[in-house]
Amino acid sequence: MDSTDLAILKLLQKDASMPFTEVARRIGVSESTVRKRVEKLVRDGVIKKFTVIVEPYKMGFNAVAIVGVDVEPSKLLEVSQKICELPEAKYVATSTGDHMIMAEIWAKDTRDLARIVSEKIGVIDGVKRVCPSIILEKLKE
Q1: What is the DSSP letter of 28?
Q2: CA distance 38 to 21
């Protein structure tokens, strides 16, 4: 990976819908150079996917929380996978921090969030503790 690849990635991270012709113009290379490099970055797994980031509050999700989940160590992967299957879980990771699993959960309101935490996450076999923290404002994404 060189400075051209990094420049392409920087522009596409800001706006993945930017046409390759515009990327090429901004960094001073040809469109075919950008296209070939992006294809290679995808093939090599550097670019995992192109996506759209939405504003959950504008979609009716008024309670967005980071949820820490503590589990029995032998159940870590099983519980993680079950949380990944929840449609309300938008991000799931295992962690070495305060909680073994961290998940971003989108809910309609705090009542809905409480239901998800108690009836969908808390009942998974191996879960010992669920600690939701409601996000007040995302400052960087």
Answers
A1: T
A2: 12
120 touches 88 (CB < 8 A): yes
d(CA 37, CA 52): 21
SS3 89: strand
Calculate ∠ Cα 14-39-141, nearest 5°: 20
Q: How far apart are CA 22 and CA 37, in angstroms?
A: 15
pLDDT digits (tens, 9 = 90+) for 122-133: 999 999 999 999
Helix (H) or strand (E) holding 115: helix 110-115
Instruction: Give the β-pairing of 89-94 and 63-71.
Output: unpaired
Q: What residue ranges define each of the domains in the chain, with the CATH number in brackets?
A: 3-43 (1.10.10.10), 59-134 (3.30.70.920)
Q: What is the pTM of this model?
A: 0.81
